Amino acid sequence: MLPGETQLKDFADRVLAMSQAEQTEVLLFSSHSALTRFANSYIHQNVEDTSVEVSVRAVTGKKIGVAGTNMLSDESLRAVVERAATLAAHQRENEDFQSLPAPQPVSRVDAWVQRTAAFGPDDRARVVAAICDAARNAKVTAAGAFRTSASEVAVANSLGVFAYHRETNADINTTMMSADSSGYAAHLSMDVNDIDGPTLAAAAIDKCLRSANPVSLEPGVYDVILEDYAASDILDYLAYLGFGAQPYQEKRSFMSGRLGEKIVGENVTIWDDGLSPEMIPMPFDFEGVPKRRVELITNGVANGVVYDSYYGGKEGKPSTGHALPAGATYGPLPSNLFLKAGDTATDDMLASIERGIWVSRFWYTRPVHPLKVIVTGMTRDGTFLIEKGKITAPIKNLRFTQSYIDALNQVEMISRQTRLMPGMIGVSRVPSLKVKSWNFSGATEF
User: Fold this and answer.
1) What is the H or E stretch that residue 114 is in?
2) In Å, how far are 40, 398, 415 from 387, measured between CA atoms?
3) How far apart are CA 365 and CA 379, in angstroms?
4) What is residue 445's predicted lDDT score, i.e. its pLDDT?
5) CA 146 to CA 35: how far, in whole Å?
6) Do the strands 220-226 and 355-369 form a parallel or antiparallel pair, or are they unpaired?
7) 289 and 101 in contact (C-beta within 8 Å)?
8) For residues 348-354, average pLDDT
9) Which residues of 396-415 are buried (b: 16+ CB within 10 A; e: fewer)?
10) How far apart are CA 326 and CA 101, in angstroms?
11) How far apart are CA 51 and CA 30, in angstroms?
């Protein structure tokens, strides 16, 4: 059982009463998470974890200290408060710090599904069994993981902020493997009933069987179809490298100095909305500030970045509700990203390509040039040659080195269907993309 709002508020009030700092913030995480892993077409691990974590931010003047604990006795809470105050006393003054946020009205959103919270190991095992049975029948091997979680977060500070939210998640993925091929499928939802094991298995098995006996293809520049699994990586790196106020202010973001300019194709619109029911919503950030919808790129034009109270204060702007937990070094980041859907079916995308490559998924991607969002990585779990509008052969995986900004200037079609995907931070909802002139820089032997 999770503590619930009343008990978390009691913890927060106890901590605030113990603090002698000029300003104090308390962040509480409570979660119950369970994971079933499988490989070689059988379950090999089942783990569960229940925890409550407390983080305290103490402010004295312009000095800030942060400390945490997972022990909730009065003695432990008093110790973490004192540790945060001691750390603050030994810090240099941060001249840009103004204040912890004042209270603002926070909307309540419903992100809780009781059947997800109650889903047990036997329930997960039945879903996994259907996947593994399908793999054995197809003479391939299944691996993957199925996680269910229920969590709460509460934020309070000495200026009167108190915000509480709870949510559930069900997240499953599976990879089907043969001697020389693989296929992947995944699903993420608040509601565990949305997860259909046989359907996931069928999708991954189909991709695995169709990608068997791959042929080599010379690296080069090709038109591509990026499935939503691959396209989500583009949003991840745009968020991490450029949509936050920290890189923007430090002039290491592709958005720096370019607000109001066209930076990608006119058919590309990206925004962040933590209140959308199409997401796993969360109505406030880790400072207790309500989330706002932020238009990041609108019809190709750079429109804005996300702020917390600190980086907003440096520009005289309000927080947009995108603070990470105190002590994080990345600054504010978007956590509920959307790439606007188009009006095209993926079959029509395929039919439009004279010669190109179908990319199911990316793997092991890493930034090469952050300012230009040049990323290198591998294709994985189904890469196919397209000729005259049809998939004609599976091909061995390729390495790419590509500017994601340049790619978004070459988007020719966007699918009408979207998929909810886990992101580097939070989640994103993405369509599939047809992109012209994608740069594949190397080939592999598998």
Assistant:
1) helix 114-117
2) 35, 17, 20
3) 9
4) 82
5) 6
6) parallel
7) yes
8) 98
9) bbbbbebbbbbbbbbbbbbb
10) 13
11) 6
Helix (H, G, I), strand (E, B) or coil at 236: helix
- Six token digits for residue 414: 């966007």
> Could you give the CA distance from residue 368 to residue 113 in angstroms, rounded to a whole number?
41
Mean pLDDT, residues 68-73 taken together: 94
Q: Which two tokens stand for residue 13?
A: 């009030």
Q: Tokens in use for 182?
A: 């693989």
Q: Please give the angle made by the CA atoms of 73, 77 and 83, to the nearest 5 degrees.
A: 145
Amino acid of residue 180? D
pLDDT in tens, 141-197: 999 999 999 999 999 999 999 999 999 999 999 999 999 999 999 999 999 999 999
For the chain, what is the largest distance between any 2 Cα atoms, rounded to a whole number of angstroms? Answer: 72
Give the number of C-alpha atoms closer than 13 A to the C-alpha of residue 107, restricted to the C-beta side: 13
Query: Which residues are registered as beta bridge partners of 435?
Result: 224, 411
Picking from 3, 29, 24, the residue whose alpha carbon sits closest to that of residue 14 is 24
* Angle formed at CA 251 by CA 247 and CA 257, multiple of 5 degrees: 115
- Residue 55 pLDDT > 80: yes
> For the segment 289-326, what is each residue's pLDDT rounded down to a tens digit?
999 999 999 999 999 999 999 999 999 999 999 999 99
Q: How far is CA 52 from CA 48, 49, 72, 263, in A?
A: 14, 10, 8, 43
Q: For residue 369, what are the CA distances in angstroms to 60, 87, 354, 373?
A: 39, 35, 31, 6
Q: Are 107 and 283 in contact (CB under 8 A)?
A: yes
Distance CA 173, CA 204 (A): 10
Contact 333, 243 (CB under 8 A): yes
Phi (first) and psi of residue 380, to 5 degrees: -165, 150
Question: If pLDDT is split at 50, 70 and 90, which confidence band does 1 have?
Answer: confident
Q: Which amino acid is at 213?
A: N
With tokens 């901590």, the residue in question is: 15
H/E segment holding residue 37: strand 23-39
**Which amino acid is located at 373 in the chain?**
V
| Domains present along the chain, CATH in parentheses | 5-199 (3.30.2290.10), 214-446 (no CATH)
* Residue 438 near residue 411 (C-beta atoms within 8 A): no
Cα dihedral 287, 48, 113, 194 in deg (nearest 10)? 120
- The model's confidence at residue 2, banded by pLDDT at 50, 70 and 90, is confident
Name the E strands within 315-410. 336-339, 355-369, 374-387, 390-394, 398-403
